[in-house]
Structure formats: structure tokens, C-alpha cells
Amino acid sequence: MLAGLPPALASSPRAHAAITRRERLIAAGLDALVVLPSLVTCVALAVGWLLARTAWGRDDATSFDTSLALGILAAAPAAWLAHLGYALVTTGATPGQRARGLRVEAASSRAQARPRAFRALRLAVHPFAAAGWAVLALTLLLAGAWEIATVPATIATAVLLGGIGSLAVILVAPEARTPHDRVAGTRVVRS
Length: 191
Prior knowledge:
Blueprint: H1 7-10, H2 13-16, H3 21-33, H4 35-53, H5 63-91, H6 95-99, E1 102-106, H7 109-113, H8 115-125, H9 129-142, H10 146-172, H11 179-184, E2 186-190
Antiparallel strand pairs: 1-2
Helix pairs in contact: 4-5, 5-8, 5-9, 9-10
């Protein structure tokens, strides 16, 4: 019997079937597609704001207008990550994973004791989180906190490099645990 699954599902042949590369990549793709409408909206708002405030590009943008436009652009990845994080922490799966019949469960005894905390940790080190860490670094740079901005910039770089490792694992052995799952003490299973 598979740990953490109801007896009826744990005994089904589908529960024992390996998760395919295609399922994992489609789930990640669906999660990535969620951000497109909000990203397009934020880009349109930021460009529209700058064009309106600069007499359709004839004047220079003020630092306030530029900062506001950057803030609008930063809102899309931040809201997207918050959406993914909320879904992952409360339901155990991102919307893409849920659509593909997958979920995240604890793989270590530490993670079993506090599954929500470890799901949140998983998202913080997931390749998608690189966008959030980069936005945080950019925000700190714009605020003039150069020294502090290096911390989230370094984390963004590490998460992005780990994402390359995760993609390699998914392509080579889709049923294996990815680096971000190993760090968080989680694994992806069928729901």
C-alpha cells in the first residue's frame, strides 16, 4: 500500500504506475500558463501608464512613473507565485498538478510532521520561484538596498540552476525526485 493514499486508491493499478515525463511537464506548463493573462494585463497597464504620463513618449518618464510601472510589472509574478503557493499549501497540489491527477506529499519524517511548511519550502526552491526571488532582488535594488539585494539575487540564481537540474531529472527519470523535492523533503505522487 502506498503511504498517505486512501486504501481504495493505493490498491488501484493507477496509483502504482510511474508518473510520466509528459504528465510532469504538462502540469508545469499548465502552471506556467496561469500567469500569462495577468502578465499581459500588467504589461499593458505599465506601458499604458508610461505612455499616458509621457505624452505618448514625447517626454521623459519621472522616477515615480517608472517605479510605478515596474511595480505593476512585478505584481504579475508575485500574484502568480502567491496563487501557486496557496493552492500547494492548502490542497497539496498546484492547479497544473491537480489537473493531471498529481499531488505533493511528504517524503521525509520531518516533512510528515509539518506538511504545509514543507510544501511552502518546496515552492520557495522550485524553479518557478526564481521569478519571485528576482522580483524581490529588483525591488531591493530599486529601494537602494544593494547589499541586501544580493541575497535574493543569489537565491534566484541557485534556484534557477537547481531548476536546470530538476528539468534534467524529469527528462531522464520522470519518476525520480527532483532536487527541489529533495531539499523540501517532498515527492510528487498520483492523487
